[in-house]
Structures are given as C-alpha cells and as structure tokens.
Write a structure and sequence with these properties.
It is a single chain. Helix 2 packs antiparallel against helix 11, helix 8 packs antiparallel against helix 10 and helix 9 packs antiparallel against helix 10. This protein is of the alpha+beta class. The longest helix has 63 residues. It is built from 13 helices and 4 strands. A 4-stranded antiparallel sheet has the order 2-3-1-4.
C-alpha cells in the first residue's frame, strides 16, 4: 500500500473513524470517572526451602525452589483457605457503597439469572470465587519470596482480606505438614497395652494361686523319680516273667500274675507321665505369660517415652515453620492505577479499535472509488466523468430549471 492509498483510506473513512473513536473514548472515560477506583494491597511471604515445613516434622531432603514456591502458592489459593477467609470476614454482609455503575451491573446480573443466562450463586460462594480470581500470587525470580496482591474498591477491605488470607494460609500450612494427634495416638496405645498387661498379670496370678511354681517343680522332680522307679520295677517284673516262662507254660497262674503286675506298673507309669506333661504345660504357660508381661512392660516404657516426646513437640510453637510473612498488607493510600494512565490507554485503544474496524470495512467494501476501478471491473475505456453534486449545487440546478 502506497502513501496515496493510505491517505485515500483515511479520507474515505474519516467520519466513521472519528465517530467510533469518540464513542469508545467517551464510554471509557465515563467508566473511568464514574466507576469506583481500584485499590491494591500487597504483601510478601518468605519460603525457606532448606528447613522442614514445620518444627515437628521429620527432617526430609529440601525441595527444589520452584517446587517449594509452587506448593505454597497452591496452598494459599486452596478452597480451604479462601473459605475460612470469607467465613471469618463475611464480606458479603458489608455495606456496599452507592454506585451507578455497580447498581447497573448488579441489576444486569440479577436479570440474567432470572432469565437463565447465568446460574444463581450464593453470595458466600460468589465471594470465594471472586477472591480466588482477584488474589494474585507471584514467585520472585531466583528468590524464596512470594509476592501477594489483592484488589478491591475499598482500600480497608483490600488490606483486611489479604492479611486474613495470610493468617489462614499459615494455619493451613501447619495443618498440612504437621503430624496431627500424635500424642493422642500414643496415649490410646498406652491404654491398650496397660489393659492387656493387666489381663496377663491377672491370669498369671490365678495360675500361681492354683499351684505355686515351687510346688510344680517339686512335683515334677518327684514324678520323674517315681517314673524311674516304675521303669526299674517293670524291668524286674519282665525278668521274673522270663524266669517263670522257663519253668511254666505261658498260661500258668504264676506267669499271668506276673504279667498283671507288669500291666499295673505300666499304667501307673503312664498316669505319672501324663501328670508330668500337664505340669510341664503349666510351667510353660507360666513362662510364656511372664515373657509376654516383660514384653508388654518394655513396649509400655517405649510408648511412654514417645508420648513424652510427642507432647513436647506438640507444645512447641506452631509459628516455627519454613514460611513467614515478611510484609503484611498495609492500607493503600491511592488507587493502583491513576486516571491519567487509564485515559491515555483508553485513547490509544479507542484509536486502534477505530483503525482496525475501518480496515475490516475497507477489506470487505466492494464499491468503486475511482474511474480506474470502473475500467478494471467493466473492461471499458473511461470517456469522461461527472463529479458528484453537493447539496448547494443540486439546489442551484433546481432553481435554474424552475427559471427556464
């Protein structure tokens, strides 16, 4: 496109571009002057990636800087944090400043919800979504710093919302990374061990009451001696039987009496061995109960020590974490963007929009703008042209015809 074509384009659409530019600039200026100014509260949070997330946590390898910052940013923007912020401050109950533009937006939203273009939403949920959109969390480059910003039409509310968000985030950080209810778990385990130990000791005392350990050992020794004597008698009787069989027939009365004495000795030995087995089972049961009680006592002492440690760590300050607020939000003394800057941006945007729309219209315009266009389209030579008469020329021509 040559300079001549550019000037032709500007001259052709000058009225349209001027009207569109002035319309857009007027609308933008009205929004800037009649709309409520936006105030932005800022704060900074330090994230130390070389420390454990909380004091009571087990030390772990440090996370990468980007990973640590992104993790903390996601915790800060989590629904749990924003929900508690809204429930604490209840911003949906605050009095709203009268504003023509704000009232118009509210009326338009209510109408769109009534006709079904928008889904109705509770004020609390709407504020949570709005807070998630407006809260900006940006990680500094090569620094363990998170920069927070939050905008609102009320400077006091902007600072209060941001400070409450930081406080709830710090509490959520401790809740996420700390081991909760450790002391309670150890206490419950101690109670269970104590109850089990009480039952084992009661059973051991009952068994010892039935028969003492010394009596069991004495009875065992006596039974072992008697079993030995019985075995010796059985050997003697077997010798007698062999001698009698040399003198008498197997069914002789003397032989049968000797065999009867042998059977009695064997039955007696079997009874004594059975009784010895029962005594050994009782002794084994007593030993097992004693070992179980000793094991439970060791476990009880171990859990008692761990309970004391858990109580000490739980009593430690919850503020000893790897995140700390460096600068809390202060009351903004002026809007985040001046009206002059907004007007300059509106001026440039309006001018650019007018040029773009005019360029689009020019692209789709198929009207002939010069004799050369007519020759190219009709493929006929240009024999002459008559300029377009203006309003004054047409009026003079009509008066001349009337005079004739």
């Amino acid at each position: 496109m040559s300079k001549r074509d550019l000037f032709i384009f500007l001259f052709k659409w000058k009225m349209f571009m001027a009207a569109m530019f002035l319309t857009c600039l007027s609308v933008a200026s009205a929004l800037i002057f009649f709309g409520a100014p936006g105030y932005t509260a800022t704060a900074t949070v330090l994230v130390e990636r070389n420390r454990p997330p909380v004091l009571r946590s087990t030390p772990e390898p440090a996370m990468d800087l980007a990973e640590a910052l992104n993790t903390e940013a996601e915790i800060m923007l989590s629904y749990s944090v924003l929900e508690r912020v809204v429930d604490t401050l209840k911003p949906y109950d605050r009095p709203r400043k009268p504003s023509v533009l704000g009232d118009a937006v509210q009326s338009l939203r209510a109408w769109m919800e009534d006709v079904g273009l928008l889904y109705p939403q509770a004020p609390r949920d709407r504020w949570i979504d709005q807070l998630k959109r407006n809260l900006k969390v940006k990680a500094s480059i090569d620094a363990s710093i998170l920069r927070l910003s939050l905008g609102d039409t009320d400077p006091g509310w902007a600072a209060q919302l941001l400070n409450t968000t930081i406080k709830e985030y710090l509490a959520e950080h401790v809740r996420v990374f700390s081991s909760r209810d450790t002391a309670r778990i150890f206490r419950e385990r101690l109670d269970a061990i104590q109850g089990e130990m009480r039952g084992r000791r009661g059973e051991l005392a009952r068994l010892k009451q039935q028969q003492s350990v010394a009596a069991i050992e004495e009875t065992k020794r006596d039974l072992v001696r008697r079993i030995g004597d019985a075995s010796g008698l059985q050997l003697t009787v077997r010798g007698e039987i062999e001698t009698l069989l040399l003198r008498f027939e197997p069914g002789h009365r003397e032989v049968e009496l000797a065999r009867t004495r042998l059977a009695l000795q064997q039955a007696t030995e079997a009874q004594m061995r059975e009784k010895l087995a029962r005594l050994e089972a009782q002794a084994t049961q007593l030993d097992e109960l004693s070992l179980q009680i000793s094991s439970l006592e060791m476990a009880y002492r171990d859990y008692s020590r761990r309970l004391d440690e858990a109580r000490l760590t739980d009593a430690a300050s919850a503020n000893a974490t790897n995140v700390v607020a460096i600068d809390m939000a202060r009351l903004p003394d002026k809007p985040g963007t001046s009206r002059l800057l907004l007007l300059l941006v509106s001026f440039a945007a309006s001018l650019l929009l007018a040029l773009l729309v005019a360029a689009v219209l020019e692209y789709f315009d198929r009207r002939m703008a010069s004799p050369q266009d007519a020759q190219d389209i009709l493929d006929l030579p240009d024999l002459g042209s008559v300029r377009m008469l203006g309003r004054r020329d047409r009026a003079n021509a009509l008066r001349g015809q009337s005079a004739v």
